[in-house]
Amino acid sequence: MTLPALKKSYPMKRDDKILLVPVVKGILLIPVEAIIRIEASSNYSKVFCKDQSLPIVVAKVLRCFEDKLPQHLFAGVHRTHLVNKMYMVSIKNNNILLESGMQISISRRKMKKCFADF
């Protein structure tokens, strides 16, 4: 089945629990709860998942993921980062600490919204 045919048969909605991610070898089905964060890198995005040591590189911009992922679970804390709120440990000194130990800076523009959400 081709990607356009698959997209028509399974339209992505904000409340879906599985994210369809096109990769070189086909399409990956990733549970939304397994996504820790998504990092933008030009016209590509790196999807960091719970049980994987290396990120999944996808030829999609971050805005595409923002539109597909549920807003109550994911926060855009920077123009280059979407973070799953379930994996956040603390916010300190304008940085978010994740369970993995990764620190992500919060942009000044998104600071108020970020603090209001948490």
| Total domain count | 1
Percent strand equals 35-45%
Structure classification: alpha+beta
Distance between the termini: 41 Å
Largest sheet: 5 strands, antiparallel
Q: What is the N-to-C succession of helices and strands?
A: HEEEEEHEEEEEH
What fraction, in percent, of the residue positions are helical?
A: 10-25%
Let me know the CATH homologous superfamily.
LytTr DNA-binding domain
Mean pLDDT: 84
CATH architecture: Beta Barrel
CATH class: Mainly Beta
* Regions with little confidence, pLDDT below 50 for 5+ residues: none
Q: Enter the CATH topology name.
A: OB fold (Dihydrolipoamide Acetyltransferase, E2P)
Oligomer kind: single chain
Architecture overview:
With 118 residues, the protein is an alpha+beta fold. The chain has one domain: OB fold (Dihydrolipoamide Acetyltransferase, E2P), CATH 2.40.50. The chain contains 3 helices and 10 strands, in the order H-E-E-E-E-E-H-E-E-E-E-E-H. It has a 5-stranded antiparallel beta sheet with strand order 5-4-3-7-6. Strand 9 and strand 10 form a beta hairpin. The longest helix has 7 residues.
